[in-house]
Design a protein that fits this description.
Helix content is 50%, strand content 7%. The chain has 177 residues and is mainly alpha-helical. The protein has a 3-stranded antiparallel beta sheet with strand order 1-2-3. 28% of the residues are buried.
């Protein structure tokens, strides 16, 4: 959250479109005043999201009639050993739950975390390579698209946290203030 609000002047350019469920107009262009503040946000948010999504996976187990720690094909220990990009797969077919992981692109995460993003300030275009080690095809996205994806991922994190707070409150315990 600190990282998001430290760069809020960047994210605010699309924040209300995203939270309002509106796609940005193709002609809508934002301008980066400090790409360095947002360069690693997607990768960091991806990691945080993957660390939080276990509560959704366990909720899915219960909804499927299993104990919270019994997956269809994995033990809980195996679940925690899988690559973070695959942690949402166990509930991907459940549309209501899958929505909390709709934005989670491991390729952008890798480019963000491994210094594989190049930003052209004159065009406001981000270029990165997909694939292990950034050896795959070149991808391009506008800075507007990048911010939209960052905000969507951040909102998913907040939704998971909201669910955790609701579950905590429903069980008669309140989180410490």
């Amino acid at each position: 959250m600190t990282e998001y609000f430290d760069a809020y002047s960047e994210f605010a350019q699309v924040q209300f479109l995203v939270t309002g469920g509106l796609p940005p107009d193709p002609d809508h262009q934002v301008t980066s005043t400090d790409f360095e503040k947002t360069r690693m946000f997607y990768g960091n948010a991806f990691e945080a999201h993957a660390d939080l999504v276990d509560v959704i996976a366990m909720l899915n187990n219960v909804l499927q009639g299993r104990a919270y720690d019994v997956f269809a094909e994995l033990s809980l220990k195996q679940y925690y050993l899988i690559d973070k990009s695959g942690r949402s797969n166990c509930f991907a077919t459940e549309s209501d739950l899958a929505a909390v992981s709709a934005e989670a692109d491991n390729q952008i995460r890798n480019a963000s975390h491994h210094g594989g993003m190049e930003f052209d300030a004159s065009t406001q275009i981000i270029t990165y390579r997909v694939g292990k080690g950034g050896t795959g095809s070149v991808q391009r996205m506008s800075y507007t698209q990048y911010l939209v994806r960052c905000v969507r991922l951040f909102m998913q994190i907040l939704n998971i946290l909201q669910l955790e707070l609701l579950m905590t409150q429903a069980h008669g315990t309140r989180p410490p203030l």
